[in-house]
Structure formats: structure tokens, C-alpha cells
Amino acid sequence: MSWARNITWAAAFAMLAGCTLPQEQADPARDPVAPARVQQEKLFDLSPQQAPRPAKMMLDVPIISQKPELHNGCEVTSLAMLLRHAGQNVDKRVLAEQVPKDPEPLVKEQGDIKEWGDPNIGFVGDMTGVRKGFAVYNKPLEKLLRRYMGERTVNLTGASYQALLDQVAAGRPVVIWATGDFQLPTEWESWYKDGKKVVAPFDEHAVLLVGYDETYAYVNDPLTGAKQQKVAHKALESSWTALGKQAISYQ
After folding, report:
1. At what angle do helices 74-85 and 138-149 cross, to 10 degrees?
2. How many CB atoms lie within 10 A of CB 213?
3. Is the separation of the CB atoms in 199 and 34 below 8 Å?
4. Distance from the CA of 134 to the CA of which of 76, 88, 99, 108 falls in 20 to 30 A?
């Protein structure tokens, strides 16, 4: 989802689905925990011996909605779809319980967030929507994926957009972080966690990349319930890049 710039931040936060995060052009030294600087572990590299990527591909991955149980659970719901495709029948609510959490309480002053958790450590806030909730980034979600897929787990964070398409061409969907409307993020906020500044776009979202052709990428969107929703390559790549090029899959 996204909110117009003339809407107050307080109203935007009240509508937060926990599945949205934009990205400003921040200085790594100034903002050490911004989404663009998520920790990287293992990048996916296309082998020179691999056959050329086909012009189009579509994976038939059943859609799972994050609603109504997981108001802010786009990441774990996207992961549930990926695991189902990989042959692991895991419920999204089980994943919501198992995903690492950062229990740091929300501290506000005069309506502004002053302190909260770090999504690079674990899910921030409440995933159900009963209380304020935000998101979780690739490293904690990779840890959860590794629980089921072991060494088959691949962290694609920092790889090229073409590498994501190569992964889909190989028959494996990819959880990616973007924005709810697949445009550049517009609603940024910042707070501190143990003295480190966290810079967060509140229109962050996670979806499952399941297909592509020459013009569009196709995603399963757990928030809208849309299966194989088409998104222009340029829009998706720009949105994904703004969220720090975060992506996880398996091999």
C-alpha cells in the first residue's frame, strides 16, 4: 500500500500493514542499519555452463493470503508459498511463530518513533496487527528458510535483477522485498536501536517472484491475494533495488 505525501505520518502509521518499506539515498556511515545495507552472505551467480535463459517462464505456485491472521506478515507468507513449492507443507502461522523477532518495545515521543527494533535482527513489532507491527529483512528470514531447506538455502541479496530471473527460469521462485505499489518508496521514518539508526520505508512489502516474460515480471502478492500479478520489469527492479536488493530462495 502507499499513502499520499499530504497525509500526516500519524495517519500513515495507523494504516501500516507491516509489509512496506522505501529507501532513501543514505550514507552507510551515517545510517548503518538502512535497508540498502542489509548484510549479505551468499550471492547467486549464474554458472557460465548454464543454458541461456528462456524468453519467458511461469511457475504455478498456489497463492496464500496473509489475511486475516497475519496483518503484517507478508514476509513469512511469501516464504510459506516458496516452501510449499519446494515440497515443504508449512503453515504461515507456524512460520510466524518461528521467525526471529526483535522484541525491542516501541518508544514514541510526541507522536514520533524514537526507539524500536531492527528488522535485520528479527521481526519488529506485532505481526497480527493487534499492536503496531513493521517488518523483517532477509537475514532473519534466511535463517528460518535454512531451518527447512538446510544448505539448499540461497541468499540472493545484492545479486543482479537478472539473477532473480535466472532463478525463476531454473524453476525456483524467489521471495523479494519491494513496495506495496511497486513504485519507489515514499514514506520514510527513522529511529534508534541500541544507538544505531534504523532507516525504514513504511511502504515496504514482500512478494514471491514466480514468472517473467519480455515485458513483465509476475508475482504472488500475499497482501492482495493476487496470483501471478504482472509488474513491469523496470518498476519492479527499481522498487526492489530501493529496498536494498533483498531476496532469498533455494537451490
Report:
1. 30
2. 14
3. yes
4. 88
Distance CA 133, CA 18 (A): 5
Ordered domains of the chain (ranges, CATH): 9-250 (3.90.70.10)
Say how many CA atoms lie within 13 Å of 15 toward its Cβ. 16
> What pLDDT score was predicted for residue 122?
98
What nine digits make up the cell of 235?
Answer: 518498476
Q: Is the pLDDT of residue 40 over 50?
A: no
Q: Assess contact for 197 and 24: CB atoms under 8 A.
A: no
Encode pLDDT of 136-185 as tens digits: 999 999 999 999 999 999 999 999 999 999 999 999 999 999 999 999 99
Alpha-carbon distance 74 to 80, whole Å?
A: 10
